[in-house]
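Subject: two folds for Thursday's group meeting

Dear M.,

Sorry for the delay on this. The cluster queue was jammed most of the week, so I only got both jobs back this morning. I'm pasting them in the order they finished. Each block is the input sequence followed by the predicted structure tokens. Could you check whether the formatting survives your parser before we put anything on slides? The first protein is the one we discussed after the seminar.
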Amino acid sequence: MMRFIRPLLIFVFTGFAIHVLLAQNADLINMEREILKMVNEHRRSIGKGELVFNDYIRKEAYTHSLNMANGKIPFSHKGFDERFNRLSGFLDITQGAENIANGPLNAKHIVSGWLASPAHRMNIEDDFNLTGIGIAQAPNGSYFYTQIFVRSAEKPKVVPTEYEAELLRLINEHRYKLDLKPIKNDETIHAEALKYSQLMAAGKAPIGPPSFDSPIKSLLRKFNASKMVELIGYDYIKPKDLFDSWLTSTKQRDIIEGNYNLTGIGVVQSADGKVFVTQVFLLQ
């Protein structure tokens, strides 16, 4: 699908200085939330839907602000295409834009400045549905802001509990045909699988099996299990499609048909509609 990225003007804020004595990270996160609140209030006032905050987009916005704050790149939209190309690996982007600013730690000042600029106001008011905001402080005490706007194609909503139950049914039906014992759902395992899916959906863990030192590995000790393995699913709206995909892989099929007796499946759908699945197989 073609995506359109609008060229932007750069809006500069100057002439302010403040002293921040509170914890910087907490202040910046609160400021990001305040900016989003104000932007969404403005969008509601003109009949537009609210923008949904997305962690993948926020990472790109923060990295750009940090690079500007550290002087690695000039105050500009440099790297704009690269940011959106990376985001396209996670989101079905049809349109995107960004606003930047440099000034004090003041949400009202920043948002008011954007709204006073026709190009930036157009981004705030356009038909986007996802956003991410990143703020970084420069050595001289000023702050750099980046807000990225994305229009991402909406996907059907899934019901996690129904998805999990259907996937387990398909697996046990397959095992039954091979005269293998069914594997049973365990709520403790389910809770850990769900946590990992939530981390992937939030962009706080890479898409793939947990690393060796991941908290999910504690299940081995907790259940005194002889072995444990995980399968990961990404962006399958229907559990049957994910199940069929797993069966096409010899390694994943061997896990489904393996000697395991307990399982837990955690399903999370992110704000942009992507479905993240973690299934843990365990032999107790």
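Second protein, same layout:
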Amino acid sequence: MKYKRLTKEQFETLHQEFANFLATQSIDKKEWDEIKSNKPEVAEQELDIFSDLIWEGVLTNAQFLEHFSRNHIFLFHCQEKFIQSIVIKSLLSTVDFMNKEGLQWLSDNLFTETVEMHLGNKEYEANRNEAIFNLITEGAILSDGQLYIQINSILQS
């Protein structure tokens, strides 16, 4: 398996897509039930293959990621050959970006001496999708990129 298996909830959400996936292999509901009962290792393989296909699609389409921690915000723009980052750090240990008050504080103090910002570019060391997947497993989430775009446009002006 290249990535990780989808959760039960994700499989439930993607029920129709999984049925279509099985249909492309000429496996209908009756045969799937038989495979689950009589060949659980084959069923496990099918679940893994489907999970990798879903992850591959999600990662290929990923453009922006965000990772919030208590005193840092990491914003990523996933390009084809490299990833751009904006790292925002509060120099005050009392600020917590994990709550609304911390984000309001950031809005009020973005360009003060209590906030550090760093821009970066890094070429992918391995496969683009694997690099993005690694960021997700470390806590980043897919985003629409609004925060990255807003901060980047402020920094560019």
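Two things I noticed about the second structure. The chain has a mean pLDDT of 94. The beta strands are 64-68, 72-78, 82-90, 115-123, 141-143.

Cheers,
T.
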